[in-house]
Design goal:
This protein is α/β, with parallel strands linked by helices. The chain has 13 helices and 9 strands. The chain is globular, with a radius of gyration of 20 Å.
């Protein structure tokens, strides 16, 4: 098992997000936009990464975030923990909306905000979809696959495994792997939606890039590892958190509770209980980031029982 550290990809620990944003923000700049709007959960890594990239490029960030009723009732009391700390430090314009899916809740809210900014403030605002996962964003991981080829992917590995949250990373890797004729098998561990959702998303990308008409289908080129969402998106079990702590203590590598931690949990379980799922024994795990998700205090109960002990020497000795 080897790890590609895409969590070290730059611009404020953005992980895989920066690869997609490289292409999306280029489109925003080329189009002469004043700002960008994107969406996600209230602790969205993608939203935070987009806000960072926007400020670096002189654009105004607008974030539409799914929130719980207590935040909707008291938006001025929204916490400054984890990703929200960075969002607020960047001066992001935050719009809180009730829980709901992308198409029924988040996309309409972004469309309304874009129209309001245009009509009331004469601002031209670029829409970045959830996770940056559209045909433009998918090129981030098509290019990443080219990087992997230069790093001897085919010679050294049989399988690639990563967390699958919105489908952009999965689509880029699967399409590039197929087009290049690579024998590597692609596995995305779902941390949010269903296998059908991700295969439908990839099929849409295949249609947009002209490959669908050749007969290739998402289910042929992408294995979605389902069944490891645990309590749900962004929610953690003690077992997941204990594995994350163990990884840190044995390797010095820190994984997050929303994406990479769940993906490792699923990968390790499949390696033990369903090894035939993998083409071989040489597996490359792509660490897609999410470190700031740890700073919401969810690890407290697990770490209080961990090997790291805290003592007080009140007399200084």
């Amino acid at each position: 098992l080897s790890i590609k550290r895409d969590d070290m990809s730059g611009i404020a620990l953005t992980g895989n997000k920066v690869r997609k944003l490289e292409f999306l923000m280029a489109e925003a700049l080329e189009g002469g936009y004043d700002g960008v709007v994107t969406c996600g959960a209230v602790q969205s890594n993608h939203a935070r990464a987009t806000a960072v990239a926007a400020r670096e490029l002189g654009l105004t960030p607008y974030l539409v975030l799914r929130s719980d009723p207590e935040d909707l009732d008291n938006p001025e009391k929204l916490s400054c923990l984890a990703n929200q700390l960075v969002d607020r430090m960047l001066g992001s314009n935050i719009v809180l909306v009730p829980q709901g899916g992308y198409l029924e809740r988040l996309k309409p809210a972004m469309d309304t905000l874009i129209e309001e900014l245009k009509t009331k403030h004469d601002k031209k605002t670029f829409l970045v979809p959830v996770g940056g996962s559209n045909y433009v964003g998918v090129w981030g991981y098509i290019e990443a696959f080219n990087e992997l080829l230069q790093q001897n992917l085919v010679e050294n590995f049989d399988d690639i495994v990563f967390a699958c949250g919105s489908g952009g990373t999965a689509s880029g890797l699967a399409i590039a792997n197929y087009v290049c004729g690579s024998p590597v098998r692609i596995h995305g561990v779902s941390v949010s939606d269903s296998q059908k959702y991700f295969h439908d998303h990839l099929d849409k990308m295949l249609q947009e890039c002209g490959l669908y008409e050749t007969g290739v289908r998402a289910s042929d080129i992408l294995d979605i590892v389902d069944g490891y969402k645990g309590l749900g998106y962004g929610l953690s079990t003690d077992e997941e958190l204990e594995l994350m702590a163990s990884i840190s203590q044995t390797s010095g590598i820190i994984v997050d509770p929303v994406y990479s931690g769940k993906a490792v949990f699923g990968m390790v379980s499949e390696m033990k209980n369903n090894p035939n799922r993998f083409k071989g024994k040489r597996i490359l795990f792509i660490h897609t980031g999410g470190l700031l998700g740890l700073f919401d205090n969810r690890m407290d109960s697990v770490l209080s029982k961990s090997a790291s002990k805290v003592v007080a020497w009140k007399d200084g000795t």
